[in-house]
Amino acid sequence: MIRVVLPAHLRTLARVDGEVLVAVEGSATQRSVLDALEARYPMLGGTIRDHVTHQRRPFLRFFACEEDVSHELPDAPLPDAVASGAEPFWIVGAIAGG
Questions:
Q1: The pTM is what?
Q2: First to last CA, the chain
Q3: Is 70 inside a domain boundary?
Q4: What does the DSSP assignment read for the chain?
């Protein structure tokens, strides 16, 4: 099981508290984790990725093992610590401004 930490507004939308657990088929990648997350919580569809292109929405970032993996390929394997459930996959709302 993959542990996923959502930002507060997406936790509210999904009606969950704290981390969520998702099971992925095959290897743990950004795509497989997000597919499993959207399958388990359909109300999140389109909030993290565009419905058509499946590109990450602006102002959202992905972190694994304290590293920003937002710009890595969606099918690149996530670190073993995330795949094993030892570390969570973080979806973080980015802040813009100056």
A1: 0.92
A2: 39
A3: yes
A4: -EEEE--HHHHHHHT--S-EEE--SSS-BHHHHHHHHHHH-GGGTTTSB-TTT-PBPTTEEEEETTEE-TTS-TTSBPPHHHHTTSSPEEEEE-----
Is residue 37 included in any domain, yes or no? yes
Beta bridge partners of 20: 4
Number of separate domains in the chain: 1
Q: Residue 79: which CATH number?
A: 3.10.20.30
Provide the domain limits for residue 75.
2-93
**98, part of any domain:** no
For 11-58, how does the pLDDT look when each residue is reduced to its tens digit (9 = 90+)? 999 999 999 999 998 999 999 999 999 999 999 999 999 999 999 998
